[in-house]
Structures are given as C-alpha cells and as structure tokens.
Write a structure and sequence with these properties.
25% strand, 5-stranded mixed beta sheet
C-alpha cells in the first residue's frame, strides 16, 4: 500500500455542486455493497437540487486526495434532525470511502469531520443507521456510538406509497 501522506495531501471539505457526480457514483457503489441497488434511485441532478438549492436538504463532506490529480475518495452525507428531548441533532446518512482508499484512516477523518460539524451547529447528538450484518458497526461503536436496537425503541419508515396513503387521511 502506497504511503499517501508522503505523496499527496488529503483534504476534507464541504462538497460542491460539481462533486455530486462522484458522490452519486459512490452512492451506487455503496448500494451494491449493501445489496440495496433497487433502493438507490437518485442521480447527480437530484443531489445537486436537494443539496444546493434553497433550502438544502442535506450537507455533504468529501474527502479529496490531492496529488498529481485530485480524486474524491470518500464522502459523508448528513442532515439536520430535532429531538423534543435534547434539541438539535445530525443524522449521518452515509459514510463511504472507496475501496482503493480504505485502511488509511480516511473513514475516521470523515467521521470526525461530521462530528465536528455537529458540535459547531450546537447539536446534542449524531445519529446513524447501520445494517445489522455490516462490519462498520464495530467502527461506530469504537467511536462511542450506542446500539439502540436492543432498547425499547423501534425504527419505522413509510415509503412513497405508504406515505401517499397516509396523506390521504389528511384530506378526509
């Protein structure tokens, strides 16, 4: 494994519109890994619209390796949450480092950047979801994340069709 530190600069920065093409590609890579390719329906144009048009629906950090060329090697996508118990929070939707760039501490650096973002926004917590079989669970637990799946809380979701049906009740 080449020593990136001696030949390149690694920068974590806020994503720009132009980065969304690479972020979209990495979302597709992550969907393959998570066996969720049918769920990954957005494209780069959707990401630009949702992340950069007002109001932005999410924030995104990219990890860029700068050497002879600039390469976007990873990303972290997050959005605001709110708890009536503790106030502001951030939800980490995705943290991904391309396979070629793994095992160099880049995931730790991206995670720390999102944690710093949460602190700078006055957030009381950072939340995330991890598939039960994903070895990344150990990564998050090593950083102090608490697995709530054994607690009394259950996570629910309404997808598009269920959401439309639920919204119909509002019109009755």
């Amino acid at each position: 494994m080449e020593d990136v530190a001696s030949t390149s600069e690694v920068v974590i920065r806020d994503a720009e519109r132009e980065d969304m093409l690479e972020v979209d590609k990495m979302i597709q890579e992550l969907a393959v890994y998570e066996k969720l390719t049918d769920d990954a329906r957005l494209n780069a144009a959707d990401l630009v619209r949702d992340g950069f048009d007002s109001p932005a629906a999410f924030g995104c950090k990219v990890l860029e390796v700068r050497g002879e060329q600039r390469v976007v090697a990873g990303y972290a996508l997050y959005y605001r949450t709110y708890s009536t118990c503790v106030g502001r929070g951030l939800m980490l939707e995705d943290l991904y480092v391309r396979e070629r760039w793994r095992r160099r501490g880049f995931g730790r650096r991206l995670f720390a950047a999102v944690a710093a973002e949460a602190v700078s926004r006055g957030c009381a917590r950072l939340e995330l979801h991890v598939l039960s079989w994903n070895p990344a669970r150990a990564f998050y637990e090593a950083r102090g994340a608490v697995d709530l799946s054994d607690a009394d809380w259950r996570y629910y979701r309404l997808d598009a069709e269920q959401l439309r049906r639920a919204a119909l009740l509002h019109t009755l």
